[in-house]
Amino acid sequence: GIEVYYIGTLEAEGVTTVKVSDAEEGHHKMEELLKSKEVDGAVTMHYPFPIGVSTVGRVVTPAKGKEMYLATTTGTSSADRVEGMVKNAVYGIIAAKTCGNPNPTVGILNVDGARQTEIALKKLKENGYDISFAESNRADGGCVMRGNDILQGTPDVMVCDPLTGNLLVKLLSSYTTGRSYEASGYGYGPGIGEGCEQLVMIISRASGAPLITGAIRYAAQLVRGKVFAVSAKEFEAAGNAGFKEILAERKAAEKPAPEEEVTAPPKEVVTEQIPGIEIMDLEDGVKALWKEGIYADSGMGCTGPVILVSDVNMEKAKDILKKAGYIN
User: Fold this and answer.
1) CA distance 282 to 197
2) What is the pLDDT of residue 261?
3) Quick count: other Cβ atoms within 10 Å of Cβ 210?
4) Would you say which domain of life the source belongs to (predicted)?
5) What Rg, from alpha-carbon coordinates, does the chain have?
6) 142: how many CB neighbours lie within 10 A of its CB?
């Protein structure tokens, strides 16, 4: 069973009340209970996680009632967006494995930084880290997820930045109540990060009793599954696959911006699309092809930004963009 301690002033049968006079005293008491290991975990509305620690939320998706982990929803894994999302993928895997899924599938939400995150994670997989990528339910597939994949819970772990993840928890937990009451799911989840060894689960002021119940159950699963042991094992495995080196390499790599003014080659009909490029890199990618004598144009497909080239130049253009680090 689960033994619940309530920090506050209310009392209820079956619950141990730890009396405090205000929120500040309550926060200190929670820290004290965690540090002394009198409690195994805590569920709270606010907690100042350090940089490098962020929370893995858990929701029930509406289309099929499937559970999905959102990595991440609060906190900041890194000041660098892409590095943070790469770390979030590992954090999500840790949460899912601890809760009993030995081989969770990972999808990357189609937000800014998704393609660079994909490149880094696929390098990690090539180097031996055990990661299974989900396939989008869209016809074009791939591990970059779209809106319908959120609703259907296509991946077990959805990787995103914490601001987007926070929004998704709010939407998916309160879409039946008009936003004011989070009625389903498990909340914003536990803080996970290298060296983090206190289990703190986050909920919000809008979290209702069903969600708080879910958060307590989520915490119990993490305790029983030995989350910190799983965490240490995953960080070691990622480290052995060059996790830090891949992140450092990505930061150090500078895409070859044209040194001189680049003039477009003679215009030609462009009918082929090259997807998988970040929106911020789109124009630079086009100019990189111009520099090689290939006419290209930029566009926006239904799955995101694309570079348009002729059928004849398609394969050559892809090779140039891959070598320059614009696409995977």
Assistant:
1) 41
2) 82
3) 15
4) Bacteria
5) 23
6) 19
**Architecture of the domain whose range is 272-323:** 2-Layer Sandwich (3.30)
Residue 259, pLDDT > 80, answer no
Query: Residue 24 belongs to what H/E stretch?
Result: helix 23-35
**Would you state the pLDDT for residue 135?**
97
Q: Which residues are catalytic?
A: 302
pLDDT tens digit sequence for 140-178: 899 999 999 999 999 999 999 999 999 999 999 999 998
Tokens of residue 8, six digits: 């506050």
Of residues 216, 160, 161, the one with CA closest to residue 187: 216
Q: Report the greatest alpha carbon distance in the chain.
A: 79
User: Which of 79, 143, 71, 85 is CA-nearest to residue 113?
Assistant: 85
Peptide bond connecting 72 to the previous residue in cis, omega within 30 degrees of 0: yes
pTM, two decimals, is 0.85
Q: Which of 31, 37, 6 is nearest to 20 (CA)?
A: 6
Q: Report residue 13's pLDDT band, with 50, 70 and 90 as the boundaries.
A: confident
Helix count (H) and strand count (E) of the chain? 10, 14
115: pLDDT strictly greater than 60: yes
Alpha carbon distance 246, 83 (integer Å):
10
In the chain, where the domains are located = 1-39, 43-250, 272-323
Confidence band, pLDDT 50/70/90 cuts, at residue 63:
very high
HEC sequence for 113-166: CHHHHHHHHHHHHHCCCCCEECCCCCCCCCCEECHHHHHHCCCCEEECCHHHHH
Q: Which of 236, 86, 69 is nearest to 165 (CA)?
A: 69
Provide the token pair at 302: 């239904």
Pairwise CA distance, residues 89 & 159, whole Å: 6
User: Phi and psi of 196, rounded to 5°?
Assistant: -75, 125
